[in-house]
Amino acid sequence: MTTVDMVAFDTWARDELAAVEAALDAWVPADAPAGLGEAMRYGVLDGGKRLRPLLVLAACRAVGGERSAAMRAAVAVELIHAYSLVHDDMPCMDNDVLRRGKPTVHVQYGEAQAMLAGDAMQALAFEVLTPDIGMPPAQQARLVSLLARSAGHAGMAGGQAIDLASIGQGLGEAELRDMHRRKTGALLQASVMMGAACGDTTPAVRAALSDYGWATGVAFQVVDDILDVTQSAAKLGKTAGKDQNDNKPTYVSVLGLVAARTHAQTLRRQAHEALGASGLGAAATWLAVLADKVVEREN
Hints:
The protein has helices at about 5-25, 35-45, 50-65, 65-90, 105-110, 110-130, 135-150, 155-165, 175-195, 205-230, 235, 240-245, 250-255, 255-280, 285-295, and strands spanning about 100, 100-105. It is mainly α. Strands 1-2 form a two-stranded antiparallel ribbon.
């Protein structure tokens, strides 16, 4: 990428992140009863990398899709991600007290309100994807299907179940990869495919974008595991070293730090190769940049 390209990317990303934040602000209700809206907004607004929405919007851009549909998909996938963090941080799961540089939702509002806030965000995600007007029913159904499958037993929830069952247990590389493919990778891959579903694509393009989403999603988790042991809590915005302290299997604990870093670079190369196979050319440039940023990030 040239300097001019990166300036263009940064401008695009800044504008799209502002648009996503505005859409979340508009669609996450402040007036939900009994303080629920406040807890929901605390859990999703003003924080996070918003990688998943950017993947949706970059994939939509790559296939020449409809941006209004992609914005709804971007908001929906971020709501699912935020709900999962609210629930994962609770004492019955990871029992974490810091997220995005501030107290977790259950610390701020109590466990019951945090559970309800997560439930409400999950439901709102599918409400956002099914407006009464403006989106064809077939497109709504496709987006709902992609998001539901990535968040359910075959994806994020299933991966979290494996994660909790694996504490203190030895996992091989294949088992670890399967766990993180579900827990983290599935929603990132779905973000790409939801963006692609906002336009007309061929089976070959969809297959290539799916491969890109898989490689990028797994790379995100590999880097997350690396950062957990190499960065401070202040840098990460969440508790550092927690997976190691909780005796959870990670790419670092299974492969070692050097091999984990090598694996992240391999996955980045695979993501770029998948984009090359898509035939989308320069239209997929922002997806390539996002894969690079996933591997190069420091928090």
